[in-house]
Structure to design on (581 residues):
């Protein structure tokens, strides 16, 4: 009996000791893990309307920077519904998405329209979803040729192209290079997935979501829900939350939603401006 | 003591791993990002070619239409300077003028007062935006029938009323533009033409460049696009043409204005084409039965 008692005492002492220290370990583990291992999130960024105002471009770049720097955001969904905008603005966004993609998966979810510059932005992502009737494509650019300057007695320039930037013929050639840049961006990002030749791309046709899938302009048909799941899958996260980055940073739609041909003409100055923009000319 | 520390560490690890596995199943490995190679981007432009105009002196009046909301006269400087250098006089048909009186000389309408002593040898209509009334259309038909030359220049970027004149001569300016995605002068709308039917308009032409040209439907087309050039509208026809010379070489229709403006006139053989047009306008027309008509008038 005394022998049994001593075994019980020994077990109690040891078990008590293991439970106690294990509990301590678990508590410390919990205290460490909560700040160390955050709940992962998928960030959503909504890019809509016309992208011509630099203020809106800055907002989009700010959202991309936030997504890149945030430890809690492990993947990003770009909700795109845009006909594009000014070429340099689109290129800024495209290059920043590529930077973001080098750290976190970026999935594009195209709504009603991801045309021209809207599509240019989407191709920077890892994977593109669109809806069956989304409007995509329109790979190309616009410009208005420089208008001859009206000479004034009191205003002079130091060179013949100081106010126009160059001749109309040069502007035409530049438009061609802008178009080629767009096509190159699409071809380099879509790679073997693309089933259209450069010449076919440059026809600047609009394709439906279903057609776009057939031609490899997108990867699958789906909504932002599918895009979120894909982002989580590529980021290899489970039990994640969602962060609306627009709401987080208080950034909403641009003031300018639609631009007509007349608006475009009114915006142009002597120097040509280039647009990755889809709109019907009449 | 070591055992106790180990237990604590295991406890910590269990929590960390548990939380980690609850949220993560691995890490994101960014795929290689292919940057577009922008150095590939090139936009070759056809260089301007040197051209020296060789011509024979002629004489006569060329009537230039400015009465139908046409293009500014300065846009035709290249053509008009070639006409002047060939000894031709440019006169304008302005708003308020009577086309019948301007076009048909006394020879044509002897009884009427106010007709010109010497009628023009050619009438040029460029991108008319206003309609031609019936009397004007009839005067133009009579002028061409009497041996006058008619140059019709339209441009798809300035749609107008040209067909109301051209239809009478079997010419239709189609509501389209021609484009080539494979070979062009920096833009798909800037097409090259290398196939010509031999006549005075296409003399010494090897390759011309047109800048947003449209297609003309006619039985007498004289310059044809290649197999990679298409119409923005017509899908069922091949061998489209933006230039036609018809009515016994008295009516010339061209569906592009830009090629004859600076600096586009200097590209490829465009200057040669403009000179050919000027030579054609300056040379007398061969009108069947004109001699008989002249004899009748003398007797």
């Amino acid at each position: 009996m005394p022998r049994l008692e001593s075994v019980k005492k020994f077990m109690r002492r040891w078990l008590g000791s293991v439970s106690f220290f294990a509990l301590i370990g678990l508590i410390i583990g919990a205290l460490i893990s909560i700040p160390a291992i955050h709940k992962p999130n998928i960030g959503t960024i909504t890019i809509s309307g016309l992208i011509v105002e630099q203020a809106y471009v800055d907002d989009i770049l700010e959202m991309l920077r936030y997504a890149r720097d945030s430890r809690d955001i492990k993947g990003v969904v770009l909700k795109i519904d845009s006909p594009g905008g000014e070429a340099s603005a689109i290129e800024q966004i495209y290059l920043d998405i590529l930077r973001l993609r080098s750290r976190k998966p970026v999935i594009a979810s195209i709504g009603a329209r991801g045309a021209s510059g809207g599509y240019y932005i989407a191709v920077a992502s890892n994977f593109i979803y669109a809806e069956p009737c989304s409007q995509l494509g329109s790979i190309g650019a616009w410009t208005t040729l420089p208008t001859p300057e009206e000479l004034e007695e009191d205003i002079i320039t130091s060179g013949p192209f100081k106010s126009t930037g160059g001749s109309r013929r040069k502007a035409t050639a530049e438009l061609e290079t802008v178009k080629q840049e767009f096509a190159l961006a699409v071809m380099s990002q879509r790679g073997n997935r693309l089933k259209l030749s450069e010449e076919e791309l440059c026809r600047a046709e609009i394709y439906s979501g279903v057609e776009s899938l057939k031609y490899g302009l997108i990867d699958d048909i789906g909504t932002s829900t599918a895009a979120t799941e894909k982002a989580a899958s590529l980021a290899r996260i489970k039990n994640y939350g969602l962060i609306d980055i627009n709401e987080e940073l208080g950034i909403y739609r641009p003031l300018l939603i639609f631009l007509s041909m007349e608006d475009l003409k009114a915006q142009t100055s002597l120097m040509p401006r280039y647009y990755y923009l889809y709109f019907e000319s009449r | 003591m070591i055992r106790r520390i180990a237990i604590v560490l295991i406890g910590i690890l269990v929590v960390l791993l548990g939380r980690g596995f609850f949220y993560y199943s691995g890490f994101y490995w960014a795929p290689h990002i292919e940057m577009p190679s922008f150095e590939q981007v090139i936009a070759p432009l056809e260089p301007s070619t040197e051209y020296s105009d060789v011509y024979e002196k002629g004489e006569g009046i060329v009537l230039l239409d400015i009465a139908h909301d046409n293009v500014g006269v300065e846009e035709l400087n290249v053509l008009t300077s070639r006409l002047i250098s060939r000894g031709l006089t440019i006169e304008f048909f302005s708003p308020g003028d009577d086309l019948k009186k301007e076009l048909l000389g006394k020879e044509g309408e002897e009884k009427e007062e106010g007709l010109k002593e010497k009628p023009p040898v050619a009438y040029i209509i460029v991108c008319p935006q206003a309609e031609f009334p019936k009397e004007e259309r009839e005067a133009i038909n009579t002028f061409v029938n009497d041996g006058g030359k008619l140059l019709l220049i339209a441009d798809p970027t300035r749609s107008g009323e040209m067909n109301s004149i051209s239809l009478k001569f079997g010419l239709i300016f189609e509501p389209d533009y021609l484009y080539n995605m494979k070979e062009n002068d920096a833009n798909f709308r800037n097409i090259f033409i290398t196939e010509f039917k031999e006549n005075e308009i296409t003399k010494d032409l090897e390759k011309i460049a047109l800048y947003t040209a449209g297609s003309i439907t006619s039985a007498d087309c004289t310059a044809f696009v290649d197999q990679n050039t298409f119409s923005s509208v017509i899908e069922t026809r091949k061998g489209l043409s933006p230039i036609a010379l018809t009515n016994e070489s008295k009516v010339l229709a061209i569906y592009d204005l830009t090629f004859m403006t600076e600096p586009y006139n200097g590209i490829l053989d465009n200057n040669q084409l403009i000179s050919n047009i000027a030579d054609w306008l300056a040379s007398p027309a061969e009108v069947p039965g004109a001699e008989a008509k002249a004899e009748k008038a003398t007797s």
Chain B touches chain A at residues 4, 7-16, 19-20, 22-28, 30-31, 33-38, 40-43, 45, 181-182, 186-188, 190, 263-264 (CB under 8 Å). The radius of gyration of chain B is 32 Å. The CA atoms of residues 179 and 189 of chain B lie 5 Å apart.
